[in-house]
Amino acid sequence: MSAFLTIDNVSHLFGPNLTTGEKIAAKLGAKVETRSVRAVSDVTLSVRKGETLGLVGESGCGKSTLGRVVAGILQPTTGTITIDGAPVMENGTKVTTRVQTIFQDPFASLDPRMKVGDTVAEGPIAHGLTKKPEARRYVAGWFERVGLDPVWVDRYPHQFSGGQRQRIAIARALAMQPDVLICDEPVASLDVSIQAQIINLFLKLTRDLELTSIFISHDLSVVQHVSDRVAVMYLGRIAELGPVAQVFGTPAHPYTSALFDSVPKLVLDDDELVRFDTIEGEVPSPLSPPSGCNYHPRCPLASGTCSTIQPLTQPVASLRTVACHHFEAQLAGAAND
Amino acid sequence: MSNNSTPLRRFWAEFRENKISVLALVVVVLLILLALFAAVVSPQNPYDLANLSLMDSRRPPGFVGSGGYIHVLGTDPQGRDLLSAIFYGLRISIQIGLAAGFVSLTIGTALGITAAYVGGRIEALIMRLVDLQLSFPAILLALVIVALLGQGKAQLIGALVAAQYAYFARTAYGAAKAERGKDYIEAALATPLSGRLVVMRHLLPNCTPPLIVVATVQIANSISLEATLSFLGLGLPVTEPSLGMLISNGFPYMMSGRYWISVYPGVALIILIVAINIVGDQVRDQFNPRLRK
Questions:
Q1: B183: which chain A residues are within 8 Å (Cβ-Cβ)?
Q2: What is the pLDDT of residue B38?
Q3: B16-29, pLDDT tens digit by residue?
Q4: Interchain contact, A94 vs B183, CB within 8 Å
Q5: A150-155 long-range Cβ contacts below 8 angstroms, 24+ apart
Q6: What pLDDT, on a 0 to 100 scale, did the predictor assign at position B2?
Q7: At CB < 8 Å, which residues of chain A contact B?
Q8: Across the interface, do B188 and A93 touch by the CB < 8 Å criterion?
Q9: Is CATH 1.10.3470.10 what the domain over B7-291 is classified as, yes or no?
Q10: Is there a contact between B244 and B228 (Cβ–Cβ < 8 Å)?
């Protein structure tokens, strides 16, 4: 296994972002929240060339933050991210164009006052991938690749539908000729009928251009469809990582299992009214995560060790890891079902 | 609304629908043209003392003076033809209003956007300074500065800018702060593009609508502020009267039946300011989708 994109021991903390006034108030003894939120903690994983890694988890688990750190939008508090050995960020600035991002909401991610062709051309011109006189043809080429009519380059974002805008956003990312693509919930804000088109486009382009990608979504069926491997995140940590078929078939982490069980299904067993198994309890506040394994307050398999010792990430099979003290019991249980 | 057009064209199509605003715009343009061509349309050059005769002073509208032409709006205490003086006064008022407006727009926008984009201590420093200044009335600040710098066009413009840049700074700051957090700015920075490029190409253009609104209102405000200062005798030299000074010149004669010396320049000033404000209101309504019917 050759790692292409390496995420090495990455953590990201969101500070309380105090204003000067609040700092003074805190010094004077006022109750001002000064704790940091550990959105991503000690994540280590690697993605092989050409692989699509799905990233799933509940809202607030840190999957988007991890995506932004990998994309070079946020500076990791600790740890490094490298693509083919080269760092993404140095001294707080992004130093590579090899990783590009597709954002969730194409209504927000395109500058409303700029012609879409100019938006797509801007990055490539700034980084010498094309020159101004040739930019039009360069952009037109990418428009065709993502299924847009090249005559639309002079239009403004408001003149397009949601699906078309997301195609423009994809064209913008691809026009930078990246090796790695971060897709942050790229279909979450689209109609179901459009989602399929965008997903198929994504699959075709990643195959044709041999892109390595991280596909962030809370939609498990989408992730199952597009990913080679999937990482399940819980409270900033990777609970489980492995090939899609294995993780979806026999979850090794109790959280993965619970997450899959909570998905409503269309097929009912034996005409019986099926109850969805929801996960017990609430997601703990990331301001004060639980001791030991951060899933233990909600875990059916939790024991004494779970509340004191944080489980190590250990290999289960080839390309598959899990961070759980009781993964063997979980796997045995899954096999019995 | 046609779908295949530039934002500017769509803006004009909507603007055209309100007849009063179009009328106000026509009035503004007409007054600007009159001011520009004051020398051509005026029967007299009111700043050339050789043209003035004290024999003609304080004459009522319709009087035929020593120049041999009709003083349509009468004459002022120095024997100036009031109509000519109003055209020339308009020129000075509009010049000063526009100059002060654009200089404060530039300075205020630069400060506001810098504060919003850079953040941290610089943000706190700039914006607290702006808050401090906005807590004083603009007229007080302008008065103090004119008193310190002395009289003259440049000094007056300086005083108006010092009194008004803060409005632009706060507007630009508010707009930029809101735009700064949007995805398209993040997308541009993630490419990566330089901060300078992101500010000039993305942040600034998206902050323009509220700034245009404030600019129209503030141009009208600086015209009336200048008139106020001139009325108080702190504006321009007496030899080059602006509208405010014309009003001031006629003020002592108001009660003696010679109303025209103050009233006509006043009417001109009101028409100018009201017309600019109507245009400004229309622009504001169009930029604020919540006010749309």
A1: 103-105, 108-109
A2: 84
A3: 989 999 999 999 99
A4: no
A5: A152/A116, A152/A117, A153/A115, A153/A116, A153/A117, A153/A120, A154/A115, A154/A117, A155/A115, A155/A116
A6: 44
A7: 19-20, 71-73, 93-94, 97, 100-101, 103-105, 108-114, 122-123, 126-127, 156, 159, 169, 172, 176
A8: no
A9: no
A10: yes
In a domain, A235, yes or no: yes
pLDDT tens per residue across span B153-205: 888 899 999 989 999 999 999 999 999 999 999 999 999 999 999 999 999 99
Interchain contact, A113 vs B7, CB within 8 Å: yes
Q: Which of B182, B193, B206 sits opposite A122 (nearest CB)?
A: B193
Identity of the highest mean pLDDT range in A30-34, A213-217, A304-308, B147-151: A213-217
Tell me, yes or no, whether A303 lies in a domain.
Answer: yes
Residue B188 contacts A, CB cutoff 8 Å: yes
**Which domain, by its residues, includes A336?**
229-337
Chain B residues close to A156, C-beta within 8 Å: 7
Average pLDDT for chain A: 89
B26 touches chain A (CB under 8 A): no
List, in sequence order, the alpha helices (H) in chain B: 7-15, 19-36, 38-41, 82-118, 120-134, 138-149, 153-180, 183-190, 195-198, 204-231, 243-250, 260-287
What does the pLDDT read at residue B139? 87
Ranges of each domain in chain B: 7-291
A290 domain-assigned: yes
What is the pLDDT at residue B44? Answer: 79
Query: How many Å apart are CA A144 and CA A52, to the nearest integer?
Result: 23
A87 to chain B: which residues are within 8 Å by CB? none
pLDDT tens digits, A155-175:
989 889 999 999 999 999 999
What average pLDDT does the structure give for chain B? 87
- Phi then psi for residue A171, to 5 deg, are -60, -40
Please name the member of A103, A112, A159 whose beta carbon is closest to the beta carbon of B187: A103
Mutate one of A109, A154, A182 to test the B interface: name it (highest B CB count within 10 A): A109
More reliable by pLDDT, A117 or B57: A117
Total domain count, chain A: 1
Report residue A210 as tokens.
């041999």
User: With an 8 Å Cβ cutoff, is B122 touching chain A?
Assistant: no
Domain membership of residue A111 (yes or no) is no
Helix (H, G, I), strand (E, B) or coil at A45: strand
What is the value of ipTM here, to two decimals?
0.86
